[in-house]
Write a structure and sequence with these properties.
There is one protein chain. This protein has 951 residues and is of the alpha+beta class. Among the domains are: 202 residues, Rossmann fold, CATH 3.40.50.620; 208 residues, Valyl/Leucyl/Isoleucyl-tRNA synthetase, editing domain (Isoleucyl-tRNA Synthetase, domain 2, Alpha-Beta Complex); 60 residues, Ubiquitin-like (UB roll). It is built from 28 helices and 35 strands. A hairpin with a 6-residue loop joins strand 13 and strand 14. Helix 1 crosses helix 26, helix 22 packs across helix 24 and helix 24 runs antiparallel to helix 25. The chain is globular and about 100 Å long.
Amino acid sequence: MPDIPAHRYTPEFANAIEKRWQDRWEEDRTFEVANPSGPWGEAGVAERPKRMVQDMFSYPSGAGLHVGHPLPYIASDVYARYLRTRGFHVLFTQGFDAFGLPAEQHAVATGQHPRKTTEQNITAFKRQLRQLGLSYDQRRRIATTDPDYYRWTQWIFLQIFNAWFDERVGKARPIGELEQAYASGEVATPDGRPWTELGEAERVDAIDSRRLAYKRKVPVNWAPGLGTVVANEEVTNEGLTERGDMPVFRRDLSQWMMRITAYADRLTDDLDRVAWPESIKTMQRNWIGRSHGAALTFAVDSTDGGAGLEVFTTRPDTIFGATFMVVAPEHPILESAVPAAWPTGTKAAWTGGAATPAEAVGDYQRAASRKSERDRQIDDKQKSGVFTGIFATNPVTGQPVPVFTADYVLMGYGTGAIMAVPGEDERDWDFAAKYDLPHVRTVQPPEDHDENTAYTGPGAIINSANERISLNGMEIDEAKSAVIELLEKDNAGHGTVTYKLRDWLFSRQRYWGEPFPIVYDEHGHAHAVPDDQLPVELPEVADYSPKTYEPDDAQSEPESPLSRATEWVEVELDLGEGRKTYRRETDTMPNWAGSCWYELRYTDAGNHERVVDPDVENYWMGPGRGEGEGVANDPGGVDFYIGGAEHAVLHLLYSRFWHKVLHDLGFVSSEEPFRRLFIHGYVQAFAFRDHRGQPVPATEVEVGEDGESWTWNGQAVTREYGKMGKSLKNVVTPDEMCDQYGADTFRVYEMSMGPLDQSRAWETRAVVGSQRFLQRIWRNLVDESTGELRVVDAAPGDALNRLLHTTIAGVRDDYDELRFNTAVAKITELNNALTQADSVPREVAEAIVTMVSPLAPHMAEELWQRLGHEGSVAFASFPEPQEQWLVAETVTCVVQIQGKVRARIEVAPDISDADLEAAALAHERVQISLGDKAIRKVIVRAPKLVSIVAG
């Protein structure tokens, strides 16, 4: 085997220079960025053009990174590095969303404190990320588990707790102003009595009823086997917990809630102001679910004298087709209006085989409690329900309609009751068909419509008239208005807007989360812990697990691990009435809390006096700055935020809510946390299975000569495509890639696999192509035997100059638009041309190094230094394309005679029409084709076309 030249760019050589430059960047604090004021303030920063680039939070899993994880981290680093070369002051850092169930479950299993596990995982992640050469400002790095960080998470919670939403102005206000508004009569008290007539406890309740953070009994997902409440997103389609596969039951439990519904309109409308993918905006709009329609009441006889069943409908025009009603199994009317016996004429199919309505409803409620809301929504085509024995009265027709309970109706959506219109709703049609209920069409379907299905399209109103109103012949919108007018006249309903969005469940019965900064007095009233006593730190406990029960024990009660820390729970405080004993809140916040505001902490992580300095926040995130400069109605926010589509709704929605509250209360100038959002694709991988269907190591599989067959240990295997995972034996780690090829090669490969917003298949064998790309750049500039530069101080020739400047212009556009794969292709073309040149002009060499530096920063730093530069290439100016070289030297002009191409001639791009016509007519092949024909007309479209008409 021939000796490898001493200065060849091999993986070993790459690893050595990468480690050296990573150490150098850290020692020189190369990527630390100053603020306009505060602890890291520096004169002149406020006038500098800036960009804030941010990844979504990392979760420090014990499994570490596989090659799919760094894709967005490398992409954001490439973009941040490019922006620095364009002269921008760039804030780029990273942090860890480190609270959560996995670390707690590990602690329960091993007895090791979750903090220790989390810190070990963070250390491992930092090592993996460091070897990739990511240009983070290390000072700004955060972890949600750091008490200094969650001190401010708790502080923000208290701002929300101490605020109320004033619908008159559409914004949050301090809670003290609510008491003034109650006292002055500006805002009515909950029961309408004057403020002066309320007792002390009633006043506290009146204030608490309007807080943006409040505690209330609400239906929740209770998992007895885990001993905790879980969020909807933590429940599988089978009604089991995502972690542990424990049954989930719907229970009414006292929980902390966030009044995000107050912001439903702003959360919807302000989507028009941010630069996000339309698909993500649509997902958020659908989640919020703003609908215009009517609220109306169906009268019902009940033991408590209730007003009846209130429903919301977007189609009040279909009121004549409402032939039954459905209520959620949790609806309170089932406690007050279910009769003792089945009414006369009750059909057997309606009762579920029960002897009485109460038995039928009770059995059904218990069955429904075993399903998650997600399960109930997904399975809504599998109709099930029972008749409640209740009849309600249609407020327009006066006709009685039977009331069913069914689990496809959710108490949290609308009023928990619907009027069912089988003729115009497919779901209601299916339910009516199963339970032998009538349907009445109220919209005329087209002639070719299947008479055995509901019709949901437009048309004229039919079958909708009585002595009080006739809608027949009207179009749908006209009929809606007519029905609403009648309902309002009769005080039976009104036009309104409703939302799918529900208030945010904010309690968890877990140990490993942010403690609430809340204490309770002897009356059970909540009080805020004073700011100077924050953070409320997690106490040490002997047992990290919540009290668990038999998985099917639906009637059990949550008991948080913190409730057993009795010395911590009972606390003496002076909250203005002398020292008294209070009881701490023993639930913890969900792990969403820390990720709701981390972008703000990144801007001012060194500030220990306030959550963020106003000047700092305004510089990095304020409206009209950065990407928002010159943008009408710019809301402000992070200039570039990259992450996965799995966080498209909840994380982004919760972050927007917290940010808007902070804006309303005057703490931030920006109205949105993330001005520009980019959703990246994913790195997926091939997996292989043997004849038994068992996975085999993907790295050991051989590809057949046809490229479409595979073998492992000489046996045929099948290939499939999907996620990386240990169970599929197809995991590849960045550590392996860095060892085998070097970090720069790995970076280039990940960025050149395809468009950043599309998923792509990992192929280890293809990484060598990126290695060769970097080796050719190195070899063009450095003699592999001597290590001497091969660069000369000579001007490039015209052809190379033209390619150089078109490459500069193209690569700059590609970086601007995050087309990193095509940027690699353009640099490759220029570098290949350089390979064919007699010498390597310095101008071309330095341009290549600068252009490739965002992608392969370690190699670029090494070459930049060897080219004689003292400063880091990270701050070298991106080369500027020269206009004179962007114009093609010649263009091809097509000459047609009678519509047929007769010649092609090379001409100057700026040739005049007259000169082009003369050149075309003088061309030998044109003269032969014309012969003695007379030229009747010449059409010239310089510089690319001459069309001759002859005859």
